[in-house]
Protein backbone atom coordinates (compact mmCIF):
# COMPACT_ATOMS: atom_id res chain seq x y z
CA UNK A 1 0.00 0.00 0.00
CA UNK A 2 1.18 3.53 -0.71
CA UNK A 3 1.34 4.57 2.93
CA UNK A 4 3.66 1.75 3.94
CA UNK A 5 5.89 2.32 0.91
CA UNK A 6 6.27 5.99 1.69
CA UNK A 7 6.80 5.26 5.37
CA UNK A 8 9.58 2.88 4.43
CA UNK A 9 11.14 5.48 2.15
CA UNK A 10 11.02 8.07 4.92
CA UNK A 11 12.55 5.64 7.37
CA UNK A 12 15.43 4.74 5.06
CA UNK A 13 16.11 8.36 4.20
CA UNK A 14 15.98 9.48 7.79
CA UNK A 15 18.36 6.76 8.79
CA UNK A 16 20.77 7.74 6.05
CA UNK A 17 20.68 11.48 6.71
CA UNK A 18 20.38 11.75 10.48
CA UNK A 19 23.94 10.60 11.19
CA UNK A 20 25.29 13.40 9.01
CA UNK A 21 22.87 15.87 10.52
CA UNK A 22 23.37 15.08 14.12
CA UNK A 23 26.98 14.08 14.24
CA UNK A 24 28.36 16.36 16.91
CA UNK A 25 31.48 14.29 17.16
CA UNK A 26 34.30 15.81 19.14
CA UNK A 27 37.37 16.40 17.06
CA UNK A 28 40.83 16.23 18.47
CA UNK A 29 43.07 19.28 18.32
CA UNK A 30 45.56 19.95 15.59
CA UNK A 31 49.09 18.79 16.31
CA UNK A 32 50.70 22.25 16.67
CA UNK A 33 47.95 23.51 18.98
CA UNK A 34 48.21 20.44 21.17
CA UNK A 35 51.94 21.13 21.51
CA UNK A 36 51.23 24.69 22.65
CA UNK A 37 48.79 23.38 25.25
CA UNK A 38 51.22 20.77 26.49
CA UNK A 39 53.89 23.42 26.93
CA UNK A 40 51.53 24.85 29.55
CA UNK A 41 50.84 21.45 31.09
CA UNK A 42 47.30 21.46 29.71
CA UNK A 43 46.43 18.04 28.34
CA UNK A 44 42.69 18.19 27.53
CA UNK A 45 42.09 19.67 24.13
CA UNK A 46 39.41 19.78 21.47
CA UNK A 47 38.39 21.64 18.35
CA UNK A 48 35.43 23.93 18.84
CA UNK A 49 32.70 23.49 16.30
CA UNK A 50 32.90 26.86 14.54
CA UNK A 51 35.33 29.55 13.38
CA UNK A 52 38.14 27.01 13.19
CA UNK A 53 38.77 27.59 16.87
CA UNK A 54 40.56 25.21 19.23
CA UNK A 55 40.33 24.98 22.98
CA UNK A 56 42.47 23.42 25.69
CA UNK A 57 41.66 23.44 29.37
CA UNK A 58 42.59 22.11 32.77
CA UNK A 59 41.10 22.71 36.18
CA UNK A 60 41.76 22.11 39.84
CA UNK A 61 40.02 22.91 43.10
CA UNK A 62 40.60 26.39 44.42
CA UNK A 63 40.15 27.74 47.89
CA UNK A 64 36.76 28.96 49.16
CA UNK A 65 34.82 26.46 47.02
CA UNK A 66 35.92 27.65 43.65
CA UNK A 67 37.47 26.09 40.59
CA UNK A 68 40.65 27.34 39.03
CA UNK A 69 40.41 26.98 35.28
CA UNK A 70 43.28 27.37 32.88
CA UNK A 71 42.37 27.79 29.26
CA UNK A 72 44.14 28.18 25.98
CA UNK A 73 41.93 29.44 23.16
CA UNK A 74 43.23 29.55 19.60
CA UNK A 75 41.74 30.91 16.39
CA UNK A 76 42.83 32.18 13.01
CA UNK A 77 42.93 35.94 12.57
CA UNK A 78 43.69 36.48 8.88
CA UNK A 79 42.76 40.15 8.67
CA UNK A 80 45.45 42.78 9.28
CA UNK A 81 43.54 43.82 12.38
CA UNK A 82 40.74 42.31 14.42
CA UNK A 83 39.83 40.65 17.65
CA UNK A 84 39.08 37.26 19.14
CA UNK A 85 37.18 36.53 22.29
CA UNK A 86 36.41 33.76 24.73
CA UNK A 87 34.13 33.98 27.72
CA UNK A 88 31.90 32.27 30.24
CA UNK A 89 28.25 33.03 30.80
CA UNK A 90 26.87 32.76 34.34
CA UNK A 91 23.30 32.94 33.01
CA UNK A 92 21.02 30.09 32.06
CA UNK A 93 22.10 29.69 28.47
CA UNK A 94 25.34 29.88 26.52
CA UNK A 95 24.80 33.12 24.64
CA UNK A 96 26.44 36.43 23.90
CA UNK A 97 24.45 38.65 26.26
CA UNK A 98 25.67 38.28 29.82
CA UNK A 99 29.05 36.87 28.88
CA UNK A 100 32.15 37.72 30.91
CA UNK A 101 34.59 37.95 28.06
CA UNK A 102 38.31 38.01 27.55
CA UNK A 103 39.03 39.81 24.28
CA UNK A 104 42.35 39.84 22.52
CA UNK A 105 42.90 42.63 20.03
CA UNK A 106 45.31 42.78 17.13
CA UNK A 107 46.19 46.29 15.93
CA UNK A 108 47.22 46.90 12.35
CA UNK A 109 50.82 47.48 13.39
CA UNK A 110 50.91 44.03 14.95
CA UNK A 111 50.56 45.04 18.60
CA UNK A 112 48.49 42.62 20.64
CA UNK A 113 46.56 43.35 23.80
CA UNK A 114 44.12 41.42 25.94
CA UNK A 115 41.48 42.84 28.29
CA UNK A 116 38.27 41.81 30.03
CA UNK A 117 34.78 43.00 29.09
CA UNK A 118 31.19 42.70 30.25
CA UNK A 119 28.97 41.90 27.28
CA UNK A 120 25.51 43.33 27.71
CA UNK A 121 22.36 43.96 25.70
CA UNK A 122 23.73 47.39 24.79
CA UNK A 123 26.77 45.73 23.29
CA UNK A 124 24.54 43.87 20.87
CA UNK A 125 22.70 47.00 19.83
CA UNK A 126 25.30 49.71 19.60
CA UNK A 127 28.51 48.06 20.61
CA UNK A 128 29.78 50.35 23.32
CA UNK A 129 32.48 47.95 24.29
CA UNK A 130 34.93 49.25 26.89
CA UNK A 131 37.14 47.19 29.18
CA UNK A 132 35.78 46.52 32.63
CA UNK A 133 36.67 44.44 35.64
CA UNK A 134 34.78 41.16 35.49
CA UNK A 135 36.29 39.63 38.60
CA UNK A 136 37.11 35.92 38.28
CA UNK A 137 40.58 36.68 39.53
CA UNK A 138 41.61 37.89 36.10
CA UNK A 139 44.36 40.45 35.82
CA UNK A 140 46.99 41.41 33.28
CA UNK A 141 49.34 38.97 35.04
CA UNK A 142 47.33 35.86 34.18
CA UNK A 143 46.12 36.67 30.67
CA UNK A 144 48.20 36.59 27.54
CA UNK A 145 47.59 36.87 23.81
CA UNK A 146 50.22 35.57 21.47
CA UNK A 147 50.87 35.17 17.81
CA UNK A 148 51.86 31.60 17.12
CA UNK A 149 54.33 30.47 14.52
CA UNK A 150 51.84 28.70 12.25
CA UNK A 151 49.05 29.85 9.90
CA UNK A 152 48.06 33.21 11.42
CA UNK A 153 46.92 31.45 14.56
CA UNK A 154 46.63 33.58 17.68
CA UNK A 155 46.06 32.25 21.16
CA UNK A 156 44.70 33.62 24.38
CA UNK A 157 45.87 32.03 27.59
CA UNK A 158 44.05 32.79 30.83
CA UNK A 159 43.83 31.48 34.34
CA UNK A 160 40.54 32.25 36.03
CA UNK A 161 38.85 31.41 39.31
CA UNK A 162 35.19 30.42 39.02
CA UNK A 163 33.15 30.61 42.23
CA UNK A 164 31.16 27.38 42.54
CA UNK A 165 27.89 29.07 43.51
CA UNK A 166 27.74 30.75 40.11
CA UNK A 167 29.59 28.44 37.74
CA UNK A 168 29.24 24.69 37.61
CA UNK A 169 32.23 23.28 35.76
CA UNK A 170 30.30 20.15 34.76
CA UNK A 171 28.06 22.36 32.64
CA UNK A 172 29.82 25.61 31.93
CA UNK A 173 28.29 28.02 29.39
CA UNK A 174 31.09 29.22 27.22
CA UNK A 175 31.17 31.29 24.02
CA UNK A 176 33.80 32.36 21.56
CA UNK A 177 33.91 34.85 18.73
CA UNK A 178 36.14 36.42 16.09
CA UNK A 179 35.70 39.90 14.62
CA UNK A 180 37.53 41.76 11.89
CA UNK A 181 36.84 45.40 12.70
CA UNK A 182 38.24 47.61 15.40
CA UNK A 183 38.28 51.32 16.07
CA UNK A 184 41.39 52.43 17.91
CA UNK A 185 41.66 49.54 20.30
CA UNK A 186 37.91 49.00 20.61
CA UNK A 187 36.40 45.85 19.10
CA UNK A 188 33.53 46.46 16.68
CA UNK A 189 30.72 44.17 15.55
CA UNK A 190 31.58 40.69 14.35
CA UNK A 191 29.92 39.14 11.27
CA UNK A 192 26.66 37.27 11.90
CA UNK A 193 26.96 34.29 9.64
CA UNK A 194 25.88 30.98 11.14
CA UNK A 195 29.50 30.28 12.06
CA UNK A 196 29.49 33.38 14.23
CA UNK A 197 26.19 32.69 15.94
CA UNK A 198 26.81 28.98 16.52
CA UNK A 199 29.87 29.70 18.57
CA UNK A 200 28.43 28.73 21.94
CA UNK A 201 28.02 25.55 23.94
CA UNK A 202 27.54 24.04 27.37
CA UNK A 203 30.64 22.08 28.22
CA UNK A 204 31.56 19.53 30.86
CA UNK A 205 35.08 20.58 31.80
CA UNK A 206 35.51 17.50 33.98
CA UNK A 207 35.17 15.18 31.00
CA UNK A 208 38.50 14.88 29.27
CA UNK A 209 36.89 14.58 25.84
CA UNK A 210 35.11 17.91 26.40
CA UNK A 211 31.56 16.62 26.07
CA UNK A 212 29.21 19.44 25.13
CA UNK A 213 25.51 20.13 24.71
CA UNK A 214 23.30 23.18 24.31
CA UNK A 215 23.35 23.38 20.53
CA UNK A 216 19.59 23.28 20.20
CA UNK A 217 19.47 25.86 17.43
CA UNK A 218 21.85 23.98 15.24
CA UNK A 219 19.99 20.79 16.10
CA UNK A 220 16.78 22.40 14.86
CA UNK A 221 18.58 23.55 11.73
CA UNK A 222 19.62 19.99 11.02
CA UNK A 223 16.08 18.77 11.59
CA UNK A 224 14.92 21.51 9.20
CA UNK A 225 17.40 20.34 6.60
CA UNK A 226 16.55 16.66 6.94
CA UNK A 227 12.78 17.19 6.81
CA UNK A 228 13.07 19.45 3.77
CA UNK A 229 15.37 17.09 1.94
CA UNK A 230 13.03 14.17 2.58
CA UNK A 231 9.77 16.02 2.01
CA UNK A 232 10.38 18.42 -0.85
CA UNK A 233 13.63 17.00 -2.12
CA UNK A 234 12.87 13.28 -2.31
CA UNK A 235 9.22 12.33 -1.90
CA UNK A 236 7.90 14.97 -4.33
CA UNK A 237 10.30 13.92 -7.11
CA UNK A 238 9.44 10.26 -6.50
CA UNK A 239 5.77 11.18 -6.85
CA UNK A 240 6.53 12.93 -10.14
CA UNK A 241 8.43 9.91 -11.47
CA UNK A 242 5.50 7.70 -10.59
CA UNK A 243 3.04 10.00 -12.32
CA UNK A 244 5.21 10.25 -15.42
CA UNK A 245 6.07 6.64 -16.04
CA UNK A 246 3.39 4.56 -14.42
CA UNK A 247 0.21 6.31 -15.49
CA UNK A 248 -0.20 5.29 -19.10
CA UNK A 249 3.14 4.67 -20.69
CA UNK A 250 5.44 2.70 -20.49
CA UNK A 251 3.64 1.08 -17.58
CA UNK A 252 -0.01 1.32 -16.91
CA UNK A 253 -0.68 0.62 -13.28
CA UNK A 254 -4.14 1.94 -12.67
CA UNK A 255 -5.12 2.90 -10.01
CA UNK A 256 -1.91 2.07 -8.17
CA UNK A 257 0.01 4.93 -9.79
CA UNK A 258 -2.59 7.38 -8.57
CA UNK A 259 -2.56 6.14 -5.00
CA UNK A 260 1.24 6.14 -4.91
CA UNK A 261 1.42 9.57 -6.51
CA UNK A 262 -1.04 11.04 -4.03
CA UNK A 263 0.65 9.18 -1.16
CA UNK A 264 4.10 10.55 -2.04
CA UNK A 265 2.91 14.06 -2.75
CA UNK A 266 0.80 14.29 0.37
CA UNK A 267 3.45 12.88 2.72
CA UNK A 268 6.13 14.95 0.98
CA UNK A 269 4.02 18.04 1.39
CA UNK A 270 3.33 17.41 5.07
CA UNK A 271 6.92 16.48 5.97
CA UNK A 272 8.24 19.40 3.91
CA UNK A 273 5.80 21.81 5.49
CA UNK A 274 6.93 20.76 8.95
CA UNK A 275 10.53 21.44 7.92
CA UNK A 276 9.54 24.72 6.34
CA UNK A 277 7.77 25.85 9.51
CA UNK A 278 10.88 25.06 11.57
CA UNK A 279 12.92 27.14 9.10
CA UNK A 280 10.53 30.05 9.41
CA UNK A 281 10.57 29.97 13.19
CA UNK A 282 14.38 29.79 13.23
CA UNK A 283 14.51 32.71 10.83
CA UNK A 284 12.04 34.61 12.99
CA UNK A 285 13.94 34.10 16.21
CA UNK A 286 17.22 35.35 14.75
CA UNK A 287 16.26 38.91 14.10
CA UNK A 288 19.67 40.11 13.10
CA UNK A 289 20.27 38.02 10.05
CA UNK A 290 18.06 36.73 7.26
CA UNK A 291 18.82 34.59 4.30
CA UNK A 292 16.74 36.47 1.78
CA UNK A 293 16.92 34.24 -1.29
CA UNK A 294 16.56 31.04 0.67
CA UNK A 295 13.57 32.52 2.44
CA UNK A 296 11.86 33.77 -0.72
CA UNK A 297 12.37 30.46 -2.52
CA UNK A 298 11.11 28.68 0.59
CA UNK A 299 7.92 30.71 0.62
CA UNK A 300 7.44 30.20 -3.15
CA UNK A 301 7.88 26.46 -2.70
CA UNK A 302 5.29 26.31 0.03
CA UNK A 303 2.82 28.48 -1.88
CA UNK A 304 3.06 26.63 -5.17
CA UNK A 305 2.97 23.22 -3.64
CA UNK A 306 -0.15 24.22 -1.76
CA UNK A 307 -1.65 25.18 -5.12
CA UNK A 308 -0.56 21.81 -6.54
CA UNK A 309 -2.13 20.04 -3.59
CA UNK A 310 -5.42 21.78 -4.25
CA UNK A 311 -5.48 19.63 -7.39
CA UNK A 312 -7.15 17.01 -5.24
CA UNK A 313 -10.27 18.99 -4.90
CA UNK A 314 -10.30 21.35 -7.83
CA UNK A 315 -9.35 18.97 -10.60
CA UNK A 316 -11.81 19.24 -13.48
CA UNK A 317 -13.58 16.09 -14.60
CA UNK A 318 -11.84 13.98 -17.22
CA UNK A 319 -14.60 14.87 -19.61
CA UNK A 320 -14.23 18.62 -19.19
CA UNK A 321 -12.95 20.53 -22.19
CA UNK A 322 -10.30 22.39 -20.24
CA UNK A 323 -8.91 19.29 -18.52
CA UNK A 324 -6.14 19.29 -21.15
CA UNK A 325 -5.06 22.82 -20.22
CA UNK A 326 -5.38 22.04 -16.56
CA UNK A 327 -3.08 19.06 -17.02
CA UNK A 328 -0.55 21.18 -18.89
CA UNK A 329 -0.53 23.71 -16.09
CA UNK A 330 -0.31 21.10 -13.32
CA UNK A 331 2.66 19.45 -15.05
CA UNK A 332 4.40 22.72 -15.91
CA UNK A 333 4.10 24.03 -12.36
CA UNK A 334 5.20 20.65 -11.03
CA UNK A 335 8.47 20.64 -12.96
CA UNK A 336 9.12 24.30 -12.17
CA UNK A 337 8.57 23.55 -8.50
CA UNK A 338 11.08 20.71 -8.60
CA UNK A 339 13.68 23.06 -10.08
CA UNK A 340 13.23 25.65 -7.32
CA UNK A 341 13.28 22.92 -4.70
CA UNK A 342 16.62 21.54 -5.91
CA UNK A 343 18.11 25.04 -6.02
CA UNK A 344 16.86 25.89 -2.55
CA UNK A 345 18.13 22.70 -1.01
CA UNK A 346 21.63 23.44 -2.27
CA UNK A 347 21.25 27.03 -1.05
CA UNK A 348 20.25 25.75 2.39
CA UNK A 349 23.19 23.38 2.45
CA UNK A 350 25.58 26.21 1.60
CA UNK A 351 24.08 28.45 4.30
CA UNK A 352 24.47 25.68 6.82
CA UNK A 353 28.16 25.27 6.02
CA UNK A 354 27.71 21.80 7.38
CA UNK A 355 30.49 20.38 5.28
CA UNK A 356 30.40 18.02 2.34
CA UNK A 357 28.36 15.34 4.08
CA UNK A 358 25.11 17.13 3.33
CA UNK A 359 26.05 18.07 -0.19
CA UNK A 360 27.23 14.66 -1.30
CA UNK A 361 24.44 12.98 0.60
CA UNK A 362 21.88 14.90 -1.40
CA UNK A 363 23.78 14.65 -4.67
CA UNK A 364 23.82 10.88 -4.16
CA UNK A 365 20.11 10.94 -3.48
CA UNK A 366 19.45 12.97 -6.66
CA UNK A 367 21.78 10.82 -8.73
CA UNK A 368 19.86 7.74 -7.63
CA UNK A 369 16.48 9.27 -8.50
CA UNK A 370 17.95 10.72 -11.70
CA UNK A 371 19.29 7.33 -12.76
CA UNK A 372 15.89 5.75 -12.23
CA UNK A 373 14.15 8.55 -14.15
CA UNK A 374 16.72 8.34 -16.94
CA UNK A 375 16.36 4.57 -17.18
CA UNK A 376 12.61 4.85 -17.34
CA UNK A 377 12.83 7.64 -19.91
CA UNK A 378 15.11 5.59 -22.16
CA UNK A 379 12.85 2.61 -21.71
CA UNK A 380 9.86 4.76 -22.62
CA UNK A 381 11.45 5.81 -25.90
CA UNK A 382 12.66 2.33 -26.78
CA UNK A 383 9.23 0.99 -26.09
CA UNK A 384 7.68 3.83 -28.06
CA UNK A 385 9.79 3.09 -31.16
CA UNK A 386 9.34 -0.64 -30.79
CA UNK A 387 5.61 -0.25 -30.57
CA UNK A 388 5.69 2.03 -33.57
CA UNK A 389 7.84 -0.38 -35.55
CA UNK A 390 5.60 -3.23 -34.59
CA UNK A 391 2.55 -1.25 -35.54
CA UNK A 392 4.14 -0.40 -38.88
CA UNK A 393 5.13 -3.99 -39.64
CA UNK A 394 1.71 -5.15 -38.62
CA UNK A 395 0.33 -2.49 -40.85
CA UNK A 396 2.59 -3.59 -43.73
CA UNK A 397 1.56 -7.14 -43.11
CA UNK A 398 -2.02 -6.13 -43.09
CA UNK A 399 -1.60 -4.16 -46.31
CA UNK A 400 0.24 -7.05 -47.97
CA UNK A 401 -2.42 -9.35 -46.79
CA UNK A 402 -5.02 -7.02 -48.14
CA UNK A 403 -3.25 -6.79 -51.49
CA UNK A 404 -2.96 -10.56 -51.73
CA UNK A 405 -6.54 -10.81 -50.84
CA UNK A 406 -7.39 -8.18 -53.40
CA UNK A 407 -5.48 -10.08 -56.05
CA UNK A 408 -7.24 -13.26 -55.16
CA UNK A 409 -10.47 -11.40 -54.97
CA UNK A 410 -9.91 -9.86 -58.35
CA UNK A 411 -9.18 -13.26 -59.79
CA UNK A 412 -11.94 -15.09 -58.17
CA UNK A 413 -14.56 -12.48 -57.88
CA UNK A 414 -15.42 -9.15 -59.36
CA UNK A 415 -14.30 -6.05 -57.46
CA UNK A 416 -16.83 -4.96 -54.98
CA UNK A 417 -18.36 -1.75 -56.12
CA UNK A 418 -18.99 1.12 -53.84
CA UNK A 419 -22.52 1.60 -52.83
C1 LIG B 1 31.69 44.23 19.46
C2 LIG B 1 30.42 44.38 19.58
C3 LIG B 1 29.44 43.29 19.28
C4 LIG B 1 28.30 43.44 18.56
C5 LIG B 1 27.76 44.71 17.95
C6 LIG B 1 27.68 42.16 18.48
C7 LIG B 1 26.49 41.90 17.82
C8 LIG B 1 25.90 40.68 17.67
C9 LIG B 1 24.72 40.39 16.91
C10 LIG B 1 23.89 41.42 16.15
C11 LIG B 1 24.46 39.07 16.98
C12 LIG B 1 23.33 38.28 16.29
C13 LIG B 1 22.25 37.86 17.24
C14 LIG B 1 21.16 37.03 16.64
O1 LIG B 1 20.45 37.49 15.73
O2 LIG B 1 21.00 35.90 17.09
C15 LIG B 1 25.49 38.50 17.81
C16 LIG B 1 25.57 37.17 18.15
C17 LIG B 1 26.57 36.64 18.94
N1 LIG B 1 27.66 37.30 19.47
FE1 LIG B 1 28.04 39.25 19.34
N2 LIG B 1 28.44 41.23 19.14
C18 LIG B 1 29.54 41.89 19.66
C19 LIG B 1 30.55 41.33 20.43
C20 LIG B 1 30.62 40.01 20.80
C21 LIG B 1 31.63 39.43 21.62
C22 LIG B 1 32.80 40.17 22.23
C23 LIG B 1 31.34 38.11 21.74
C24 LIG B 1 32.11 37.03 22.49
C25 LIG B 1 32.38 37.04 23.70
C26 LIG B 1 30.14 37.84 20.99
C27 LIG B 1 29.54 36.62 20.88
C28 LIG B 1 28.39 36.38 20.17
C29 LIG B 1 27.74 35.10 20.13
C30 LIG B 1 28.22 33.82 20.79
C31 LIG B 1 26.58 35.25 19.34
C32 LIG B 1 25.58 34.13 19.01
C33 LIG B 1 24.14 34.45 19.29
C34 LIG B 1 23.85 34.82 20.74
O3 LIG B 1 24.38 34.14 21.64
O4 LIG B 1 23.13 35.79 20.96
N3 LIG B 1 29.72 39.01 20.43
N4 LIG B 1 26.35 39.49 18.21
C1 LIG C 1 13.31 23.23 -0.35
C2 LIG C 1 13.51 23.08 0.87
C3 LIG C 1 13.66 24.20 1.86
C4 LIG C 1 12.78 25.20 2.19
C5 LIG C 1 11.41 25.41 1.61
C6 LIG C 1 13.40 26.00 3.22
C7 LIG C 1 12.82 27.10 3.83
C8 LIG C 1 13.43 27.91 4.76
C9 LIG C 1 12.89 29.13 5.30
C10 LIG C 1 11.54 29.72 4.94
C11 LIG C 1 13.81 29.63 6.18
C12 LIG C 1 13.71 30.93 6.99
C13 LIG C 1 14.62 31.96 6.37
C14 LIG C 1 14.72 33.22 7.20
O1 LIG C 1 13.70 33.74 7.59
O2 LIG C 1 15.86 33.69 7.41
C15 LIG C 1 14.94 28.75 6.20
C16 LIG C 1 16.07 28.92 6.96
C17 LIG C 1 17.16 28.08 6.93
N1 LIG C 1 17.31 26.94 6.16
FE1 LIG C 1 15.98 26.22 4.84
N2 LIG C 1 14.64 25.49 3.50
C18 LIG C 1 14.83 24.38 2.70
C19 LIG C 1 15.92 23.55 2.67
C20 LIG C 1 17.02 23.67 3.49
C21 LIG C 1 18.10 22.74 3.56
C22 LIG C 1 18.21 21.45 2.76
C23 LIG C 1 18.99 23.22 4.48
C24 LIG C 1 20.30 22.66 4.97
C25 LIG C 1 20.69 21.46 4.88
C26 LIG C 1 18.46 24.46 4.98
C27 LIG C 1 19.07 25.26 5.91
C28 LIG C 1 18.54 26.40 6.44
C29 LIG C 1 19.22 27.21 7.43
C30 LIG C 1 20.60 26.93 8.01
C31 LIG C 1 18.36 28.27 7.73
C32 LIG C 1 18.63 29.41 8.71
C33 LIG C 1 18.05 29.09 10.04
C34 LIG C 1 18.34 30.20 11.03
O3 LIG C 1 17.96 31.33 10.76
O4 LIG C 1 18.91 29.90 12.07
N3 LIG C 1 17.26 24.71 4.36
N4 LIG C 1 14.68 27.70 5.33
C1 LIG D 1 54.78 21.48 33.76
O1 LIG D 1 55.02 20.40 34.63
C2 LIG D 1 56.37 20.12 34.81
C3 LIG D 1 56.53 18.89 35.66
O2 LIG D 1 55.45 18.73 36.56
C4 LIG D 1 57.07 21.34 35.45
O3 LIG D 1 58.42 21.09 35.61
C5 LIG D 1 56.87 22.54 34.54
O4 LIG D 1 57.41 23.72 35.15
C6 LIG D 1 55.41 22.78 34.26
N1 LIG D 1 55.24 23.84 33.29
C7 LIG D 1 54.38 24.85 33.44
C8 LIG D 1 54.30 25.86 32.33
O5 LIG D 1 53.67 24.96 34.42
C1 LIG E 1 37.77 18.84 44.30
O1 LIG E 1 37.07 18.75 45.54
C2 LIG E 1 36.06 17.75 45.55
C3 LIG E 1 35.39 17.79 46.90
O2 LIG E 1 35.05 19.07 47.26
C4 LIG E 1 36.67 16.36 45.25
O3 LIG E 1 35.63 15.41 45.20
C5 LIG E 1 37.39 16.41 43.90
O4 LIG E 1 38.03 15.18 43.66
C6 LIG E 1 38.42 17.53 43.89
N1 LIG E 1 38.98 17.63 42.55
C7 LIG E 1 40.27 17.84 42.31
C8 LIG E 1 40.67 17.93 40.87
O5 LIG E 1 41.07 17.98 43.19
C1 LIG F 1 38.45 32.93 51.22
O1 LIG F 1 37.39 33.50 52.01
C2 LIG F 1 37.84 34.24 53.14
C3 LIG F 1 36.64 34.68 53.93
O2 LIG F 1 35.49 34.85 53.12
C4 LIG F 1 38.69 35.41 52.68
O3 LIG F 1 39.18 36.11 53.77
C5 LIG F 1 39.87 34.88 51.87
O4 LIG F 1 40.62 35.95 51.34
C6 LIG F 1 39.36 34.01 50.73
N1 LIG F 1 40.51 33.45 50.04
C7 LIG F 1 40.67 33.50 48.72
C8 LIG F 1 41.89 32.85 48.14
O5 LIG F 1 39.86 34.07 47.97
C1 LIG G 1 51.03 50.31 17.49
O1 LIG G 1 50.06 51.33 17.67
C2 LIG G 1 49.67 51.55 19.04
C3 LIG G 1 48.59 52.62 19.06
O2 LIG G 1 48.23 53.02 17.81
C4 LIG G 1 50.90 51.99 19.85
O3 LIG G 1 50.52 52.15 21.20
C5 LIG G 1 51.95 50.90 19.73
O4 LIG G 1 53.11 51.29 20.41
C6 LIG G 1 52.27 50.60 18.29
N1 LIG G 1 53.16 49.44 18.24
C7 LIG G 1 54.24 49.39 17.44
C8 LIG G 1 55.04 48.13 17.49
O5 LIG G 1 54.49 50.30 16.70
C1 LIG H 1 26.63 20.75 38.89
O1 LIG H 1 25.72 20.12 37.98
C2 LIG H 1 25.60 18.73 38.17
C3 LIG H 1 24.72 18.17 37.11
O2 LIG H 1 23.58 18.92 36.90
C4 LIG H 1 25.07 18.45 39.58
O3 LIG H 1 24.98 17.05 39.79
C5 LIG H 1 26.02 19.05 40.60
O4 LIG H 1 25.53 18.89 41.90
C6 LIG H 1 26.24 20.54 40.31
N1 LIG H 1 27.29 21.04 41.20
C7 LIG H 1 27.20 22.18 41.87
C8 LIG H 1 28.36 22.58 42.70
O5 LIG H 1 26.20 22.89 41.80
C1 LIG I 1 30.88 15.24 33.29
O1 LIG I 1 31.90 14.34 32.97
C2 LIG I 1 32.24 13.45 34.00
C3 LIG I 1 33.46 12.64 33.58
O2 LIG I 1 33.27 12.12 32.29
C4 LIG I 1 31.03 12.56 34.32
O3 LIG I 1 31.33 11.69 35.38
C5 LIG I 1 29.87 13.46 34.72
O4 LIG I 1 28.70 12.70 34.92
C6 LIG I 1 29.59 14.49 33.65
N1 LIG I 1 28.60 15.43 34.15
C7 LIG I 1 27.60 15.90 33.39
C8 LIG I 1 26.65 16.85 34.03
O5 LIG I 1 27.47 15.60 32.21
Automatic annotation (TrEMBL):
Assigned keywords, A-Z: Electron transport, Iron, Membrane, Metal-binding, Signal, Transmembrane, Transmembrane helix, Transport
Signal peptide: 1-23
Molecular function per GO: metal ion binding
Protein's name according to its UniProt entry: Cytochrome b561 and DOMON domain-containing protein
Organism: Cajanus cajan
InterPro entries: AIR12_DOMON, Cyt_b561/ferric_Rdtase_TM, DOMON_domain, UCP037471
Segments for region (Disordered): 393-419
Residues that bind heme b: 224, 261, 294, 330
Record note on cofactor: Binds 2 heme b groups non-covalently.
PROSITE patterns: CYTOCHROME_B561, DOMON
Residue ranges of the TM segments: 225-246, 258-282, 294-312, 332-350, 362-382
The Cytochrome b561 domain, residue ranges: 188-385
Localization per record: Membrane
Bias-annotated ranges (Basic and acidic residues): 393-412
Domain DOMON: residue ranges: 51-179
Cofactor requirement: heme b
One Gene Ontology cellular component: membrane
Domain of life, source organism: Eukaryota
PANTHER family noted in UniProt: CYTOCHROME B561 AND DOMON DOMAIN-CONTAINING PROTEIN
